[in-house]
Amino acid sequence: MKVGERGQVTIPKEIREKFGLGPETEVEFQVTHGNILLKKAPKKLSLKKWKGQCKNSFVELGYASADKFIEDVRGR
Predict the structure, then answer these.
(1) How far apart are CA 16 and CA 34, in angstroms?
(2) What is the mean pLDDT of residues 21-36?
């Protein structure tokens, strides 16, 4: 396999399928012990969609805030 004019290489189909590398999959390059390592990048977790999700659970347990719950759990 050769690196193309623009620095591109083709990952063999068997490897793409084995590791779930499809179109738009983000990857990372690392240099380890003089070798180049290609890794599938971890998915980025957007915490925005989770903001405020526990509020109702705390209310059901009788707490006005997460801080009060934590105080009780810690025994303060």
Answers:
(1) 24
(2) 94
